[in-house]
UniProtKB/TrEMBL annotation:
Residues 1-126 are annotated as: Disordered. GO terms for cellular component: nucleus. Residues 81-90 have a biased composition (Polar residues). PROSITE patterns: MBT (PS51079). This is MBT domain-containing protein 1.
Amino acid sequence: MAEAEVKRRTRGKGLPVSPSGTAPTTDDEDIGNKSSTRPRRGSSSTVGVGNKNLGMESSVRQRRRSLSTADADKADKTGKSKTPTLTVETSVRLVRAGRSRNRQGKVKRRKGESNAEADDDEDGPFTLFRQSDKASDWDVYLKDLDAISWVAPVDFFKNAPFATRWKQIAKVGMQIELPHPKVISSKCYCVGTIVAFAGYKAMVRLENLNPRSYKSIVWISFCSSIPKHLGYSFRNRKVLLPNDAPDHITDDKKDEDFIRINEEFVEQIYGKSDLQNTVSQRHSEIVLEELEEKQSQFSLNEVVEVMDKEEPVRNRLARIVSVTGDRIIVRYVDADENDQGFCFNMNSELVHPLGWSHCVGQNLKACPKSMYTFKSLSKNSFPKYPSDLKIKVDMVFELRHPCIPYKVVTASVYKKLHFGYFVAKIDSNDPDDAGTFVFHVTSDYILPCGFCKEHNIPLEVPSGEDDSCFNWHTYCKVNDLTPLGLEKVYPKPAHKFVKGSKLEAVDICQPLYLGPATVVNTADHLLYLHFDGWPNKDEYYQWISAFSPDIYPAGWAEMVGHSFQSHAKPPNDVDHYYIPKQK
């Protein structure tokens, strides 16, 4: 684009990811197999999780041997044991207590109990069984147990998978079965208790046979094929072993130690655990169905209308060449096949179905009619807005710059379109800021006059004005202008993000880039983000809506197989958003 193509950044280049990266493996696949196939529907896994009549307890008791813990006797008499409520605070306390005992030599950590990344106790929990080798994303950050509380929960995000039902499927205290981290065999599983969540990541405490053994804490991707429901091993003829099983244990069924430990651990887990407090037997299928629903708006190879990068006031036809989660890479239909294309979210304001430009009244770059067919779009295809909201040419407002997202500029209505859309013209002292763009009146980036002053945000004032003494009332009176009446669409809904919240975000100017970011400021519905690991310069910040589809919970990139760049950084006392904890 001419004057609107401004200050492009050259960060790490995100690469297109094939659509197959979105599909988690099925329950019957080994974790080591990274191929992605859709789980079979209508399988036996549809049996309710809450059914306790699994036949496990009776078959285990027939082979019963003495348990190594005193709690087992109580479990036999009462049929269940008391389990304390788990919270993030108690989990962290248990981990630190275990470290302290280990350093004092009272409890020795078994050799090979965890991988090389966590040999040093001070390193903290490590990530177990990475679902995707594309993203070594939050590993370092999540080793710091004090930093977990900064990670924004999944239900903070309007457009994220499972956002509306996260608390129903992801609960602290749930017990799961997962591949054994020490025994190299696809048949061996262990049991873990979820003690905390950080985005889509789950912190799991691996259960031991001996209550005095070192308590191993690991991170897993919760929305993956890794966590299985309690009873999975029994149903699928897997072997259940405790985390503190001796190093020499194998899955040899003739090994007496193997038989004894397996039977004791199975008795301890299935005899004491609440079989309802676990993940669904259809966990992998549910994850896959949710991801498919999020990417159902458009499909691979579909032709759509997108903003023309060369002239953003018009649209241009493009073909979807890649789909990863709800993110698509499009290539203009008249571009070279070697063109890298552009990345958008399916719910972006810049991507539309065929026929959208014709209905709205926006220009569409000319192309042969044989390449596509117009579709008839109903009124329900467009955002709703108050019918009494007047949009007239020359009405003024404030605008988050669409190409320089760390700036808020003054703008006016240049041309009125249909269904609440209009062409916005940016008027600024900086010629690089100038440009015309299409917006809907309900867009989160159309801001009322005075928004910046109210939230103490620098405003790029109109051409010829002094920013030190600029006043909207005086400016409109002198130039006979009227502010755009946005009272009907303000205030925006409340959100839960705070200064210091950690998340994954897309760089608006380099949309192939996805990396960790920190909320350093909030202004009503807008978040001021800084990308972790990058300099403290304006171009590495951006204002973005709290309801934007371009922000995600931690772990989203790993969940769908999207490339991830940089590493999350923990907050510290030199950051101006840092909130010290009360003693």
